[in-house]
């Protein structure tokens, strides 16, 4: 299982804070593409973190069971 | 891991208390403090009434730890404290408090500026501006 | 002419009170505060116990007024407050408090640094370091 | 009359905080030279203010009755 978390504007747009997805041997980019289309997030600007680290090269990333993916809209603290 | 997130606005008394706690450290000669205050901006005729902050806290805490370590490498500092609000902070309320102390003043200003910029750009915190009429818009940092 | 000189150390409560007074100004988004704290330096094996400050107050007040005006010209600021101790300030006590507020954060760090440097180099204030053994030496700014 | 004020290290060296001197048509540099020798301040580093303004060119300065001269050692506030 992969835990997926949504934050800020993206959580609002997806109408979801977190969910679990089965990995089924998918790559990170496949899972992201599934979730983006399911939640209609295509027009939004976001970064992706896996296990609390920003992933800059999404296509190379291999997921493991228990990983935590986060959809992060632009940061606006302070 | 130091506690960063506080519920609601950061009070002047909390800041005074942090200052007082440093008065026993006799190697310190200079403190610099940055405070971010929620501005009552007007957007299309609607006035901001508060900002609602959320965060990916576990990641934010890891990142803040890294930022603190990097600042100790980069600048000659005795202490660094960073506090940020979660939840609702009304106009005029303080939502970020960055506190840097050093033996001498030379680097404290630059260190504070660097830390504030790091928090704004690298830490997953999300602000939503709430208007008087209960509409809202997601804050964008500049 | 704004009041700058305070007798003895500047308390954290005084600082909290100054911060609180700015929370009604909704155009302010950023504050920067510099605090100078008396360091327990050791000189030839003797530890500094306090600094005794005196000033040519009439001239200092005129000069501080000029400095404040120049800072408002130079930087985009909403408020400037400068406080300095006179008389005895013990180790760990705060002897200078410079407080700058602006709509946005960009210039506040540089403005604070500039103001602190101006106070140190242009304002007739004289500090005498008092050692544990009651000897003393006139402070030299670096 | 000219009022003379001494501050910090200079007040301590002169053992005097303030005094009045008759001007007797003297220039600023004459008065300073008199006071410096009377109080043995020759070895000290100081600036001079007249009426609360630093005077950088001492020799050109003409004094008037009621002027206030200050002997200012290096500033060390903050």
Entry summary:
Chain A is α+β, with helices and mostly antiparallel strands and about 80 residues long. Chain A contains 2 helices and 5 strands, in the order E-H-E-H-E-E-E.
Task: Tell me the Rg of chain A in angstroms.
Answer: 12 Å
**What's the helix count of chain B?**
3
Distance between the termini of chain A: 34 Å
Q: Rough shape of chain B?
A: elongated
Mean pLDDT of chain B: 96
Helix % of chain A is 10-25%
CATH superfamily label of chain B: Molybdopterin biosynthesis MoaE subunit
Can you name the CATH architecture of chain A? Roll
Beta content of chain B comes to 35-45%
User: How many structural domains can be distinguished in the coordinates of chain B?
Assistant: 1
Unreliable stretches covering 5 or more consecutive residues of chain B: none
Give the assembly state of these chains. Answer: heterotetramer
Structural class by helix and strand composition of chain B: alpha+beta
Tell me the strand percentage band of chain A. 25-35%
- Number of DSSP helical runs of chain A: 2
* H/E element sequence of chain B: EHEEEHEEHEE
List low-pLDDT spans of chain A: none
Average the pLDDT over all residues of chain A and give the rounded result: 94
């Amino acid at each position: 299982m992969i835990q997926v978390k949504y934050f800020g504007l993206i959580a609002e747009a997806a109408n979801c804070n977190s969910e679990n997805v089965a990995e089924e041997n998918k790559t990170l980019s496949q899972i992201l593409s599934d979730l983006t289309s399911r939640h209609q997030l295509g027009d939004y600007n976001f970064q992706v973190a896996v296990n609390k680290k920003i992933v800059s090269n999404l296509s190379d990333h291999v997921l493991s069971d228990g990983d935590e993916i986060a959809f992060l809209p632009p940061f606006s603290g302070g | 891991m130091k506690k960063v997130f506080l519920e609601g606005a950061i009070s002047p008394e909390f800041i005074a208390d942090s200052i007082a706690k440093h008065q026993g450290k006799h190697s310190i000669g200079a403190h610099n403090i940055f405070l971010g205050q929620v501005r009552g901006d007007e957007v299309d005729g609607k006035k901001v009434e508060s900002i609602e902050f959320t965060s990916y806290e576990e990641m934010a805490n890891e990142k803040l730890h890294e930022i603190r370590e990097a600042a100790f490498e980069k600048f000659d500092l005795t202490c660094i404290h960073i506090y940020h609000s979660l939840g609702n902070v009304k106009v005029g309320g303080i939502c970020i408090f960055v506190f840097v102390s050093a033996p001498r003043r030379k680097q404290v200003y630059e260190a504070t500026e660097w830390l504030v910029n790091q928090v704004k750009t690298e830490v997953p915190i999300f602000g939503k501006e709430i208007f008087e009429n209960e509409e809202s818009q997601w804050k964008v940092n500049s």
